[in-house]
Here is the input.
Amino acid sequence: MNLPPGYRLTSERHAEESELDVLHLGLDDYNRGFLGDTGYFPITLFVRSKSGTVRAGLDGAIYARWLFVRLLWVHADLRGRGIGRELLGRAERQAAERGCHSAYLETFSFQAPEFYKKLGYVPFGSIEYPPDHRRIFLQKSLSRG
Here is the structure.
């Protein structure tokens, strides 16, 4: 690596949101040269207890007419109540309303691949990660008809 004088490489465990935005916006600016308006839009949904504690949620984003679900989690005490299905459905509807044609996500083989398949997600790849498990990549069409 050949950094200009005065530059340094750092490793940081807790980056500021504004610093991460520099990376996201820089890459988005580059991508727009190929994709046009990428339509980036975050989607974050929470289920909170009466005290405000997060008990379930979904974190995702719309980018280039795709919904990417980064995280979907439901506390063990709340599983089996349709909460995950509702969170994912709401995110998909928001994405479709914003012009998305498809969604994708990742899950481990010990997490919820069958849950996602029941909701119309189709695996398109997997890798061994870590040994004895798989990381599975799934996608779903959000287009109607």
Remarks:
- The CA atoms of residues 47 and 74 lie 9 Å apart.
- The chain has a mean pLDDT of 95.
